[in-house]
Design brief:
The chain contains twelve helices and six strands. It has about 300 residues and is mainly alpha-helical. It folds into three domains: about 80 residues, DNA polymerase, domain 1 (Orthogonal Bundle), CATH 1.10.150; about 80 residues, DNA polymerase, domain 1 (Orthogonal Bundle); about 60 residues, DNA polymerase, domain 1. The strands form three sheets. Strands 1-2 form a two-stranded antiparallel ribbon. It has a two-stranded parallel sheet with strand order 3-4. Strands 5-6 form a two-stranded parallel sheet.
Length: about 300
């Protein structure tokens, strides 16, 4: 019996190694299962949103809510032509009261005023059709009366360089160095570097941000550049103008979630929600349909509209 239960040193080492290998083999499947566990489909993340969209699509007419009533087509009927009158106007200078006289709804007026206050300009009458909340009927009704002041739309902004004051001793008068403003959609790094507080790195960031957006439509957008302090932006803002708006459009009827998510104003969640809505309801007929997507608020839609198209 003693011979059967005695092992040499090599045999003992072999037995220990064998037991270790058996233990490792037994635990490998558990590790593999944890490491290769299939992730939940991304569609599940948007299940609740899709259910909400299905509930909306089950109604022939969307419910009229206080928040959205100014943008629904059926509210147009509430504006009787006898309650307002038409006259020649410049949308860049028109007052809130005058907009009301033209029959434009309150929230649409707020959108227009916010756009102008942030540096936006109407450069041709057809720009009126880009106003979010302004119906096609309103645009056709108002378009013949739009007259834009050409001098104002091309307004060249100048700034007096206080540090470069020079006295002419012969004529005993003072001259100033006048610096012309730059177009934020046309300027290169060399022009941006000439602005106060802008170095080579910030100039490149502004241009990269402009390229990712697809062009600027407002001077205020320059202030969104990563790393550009608001104090610096406020100093250089008077030197900036937004020339002719030529934003690059994304067709939301053909773009993938990946394409949409590349835009700085959209993340993957919002981009995928737009695509899922399109899958559920078919192609978008107008950009106004984005207002039906619960995850998109009006502020996001207003920022996105200049970069989107349905054709």
């Amino acid at each position: 019996m003693k011979e059967y239960f005695q092992f040499t040193r090599k045999e003992r080492i072999s037995i220990i190694l064998l037991l270790v290998l058996i233990g490792i083999t037994g635990t490998i499947p558990a590790f593999l299962n944890n490491g290769t566990k299939e992730p939940q489909p991304s569609f599940a993340l948007y299940e609740e949103e899709i259910k909400q969209l299905e509930r909306l699509s089950s109604k022939s007419i969307p419910e009229k809510t206080e928040e959205r009533e100014d943008y629904s087509d059926h509210t147009v009927a509430s504006y009787n032509s006898s309650t307002h009158h038409l006259f020649v106007f410049d949308p860049n200078t028109l007052s809130e009261e005058d907009w009301k006289k033209l029959g434009v709804r309150g929230k649409t007026i707020i959108t227009i005023r916010n756009y102008i206050s942030k540096g936006g300009r109407f450069r041709k009458p057809e720009d009126l059709s880009k106003v979010y909340g302004l119906t096609e009927k309103d645009v056709k009704r108002l378009l013949p009366y739009v007259k834009i002041n050409a001098e104002q739309s091309k307004a060249t902004i100048f700034e007096t360089a206080k540090g470069n004051k020079q006295r002419n001793t012969n004529e005993n008068n003072t001259t100033y160095s006048i610096l012309q403003a730059i177009d934020i959609n046309e300027a290169d790094t060399g022009l941006f570097i000439q602005l106060p507080g802008i170095g080579n790195k910030l100039a490149r960031r502004i241009i990269n941000f402009r390229d990712k957006l697809g062009g600027f439509y407002s001077v205020e957008q320059v202030g969104e550049t990563f790393g550009l302090a608001d104090s610096v932006f406020q100093k250089l803002k008077p030197r900036l103008i937004c020339g002719e708006m030529k934003t690059k459009k994304i067709n939301i009827n053909t773009a993938t979630a990946g394409d949409l998510s590349k835009h700085p104003y959209l993340n993957w969640s919002l981009a995928n929600t737009i695509v899922q809505y399109r899958t559920q309801h078919g192609n978008f007929k107008t950009l106004a349909e984005l207002d039906q997507i619960q995850l998109l608020d009006r502020g996001q839609i207003a920022k996105l509209l200049p970069y989107l198209s349905v054709e």
